[in-house]
Amino acid sequence: MSDLSQNPSQTASAFETGAVSHVGRIRSANEDNLVVRPEFGIWAVADGMGGHENGALASATVAAAIESIGQTRSAPDLLARLESGVLQANAELRRHIAEGNGAPMGSTLAVLLVHERHFACVWCGDSRIYLIRAGQILQISRDHTEVQDLVERGVMTAAEARLSPRRHVITRAIGVHDVPELDLDSGEIEDGDVFVLCSDGLTEHVAEPEILEAVEEAGAQQACNALLALTLQRGARDNVTVIIMRYSRRDDRTTRWMPNRRMQESDTP
User: What is the pLDDT of residues 45-86, one digit of tens each?
Assistant: First the structure.
């Protein structure tokens, strides 16, 4: 627990954060990683690709770069340091690929940045960022996938996309190209806003109304646990990672968060 009054950049702000990451029911290793640093206004999910070892290395490399950002002076400074960290991680992964004779490796990335009243969402791949405001849930991120491209071109319906065997084929990832492509959305954060960051292991099994219901019925960590339990109940064919951050402007609140939890099957609640 940390007193926000010790952090000038987050004065008069408070974040309640929950986080969980689980290997799921099928996979033998967890290739997801997450970053939970409310004291710096940083939350992130990274989902590795390229096989067990390469996927875990890719997401860990990206997460480590995000973790290293630390304290910043302004919203533009925070965003600039994120960009620098992503470029560093991308270059490191490209070196690993070259040294491994071209073995595929990469990671999705979904990041929430908050400085004072400003927020920015940055993403690459199909890990998602949702904003829950005034009882409504909105997907801020746009999936970088083959089927999403087809839906936007009118070739495939959203219902067909959800059933397509190629729905997990992503078109962007950190480490895949020499220069990573990131999307950005930003705005002003409002009292009571809730952000949900997750890997596709959650959205494969849980619909948006169910995410909204879980968030509205419980605190951040309890909602994370409930969404994980629902995913496991439905088969959890992939690793699943969820971060929930609830924002309050009340000065008497303190930052509360759980340790980063990356669980194996034996740790299932």
Answer: 999 998 878 999 999 999 999 999 999 999 999 999 999 999
Instruction: For residue range 172-184, list pLDDT tens digits in order.
Output: 999 999 999 999 9
Say what the alpha-carbon torsion angle 70, 73, 77, 81 is, to the nearest 10 degrees.
-10
pLDDT band at 119; cut points 50, 70, 90: very high
The pTM of the full predicted model, rounded to 2 decimals, is: 0.88
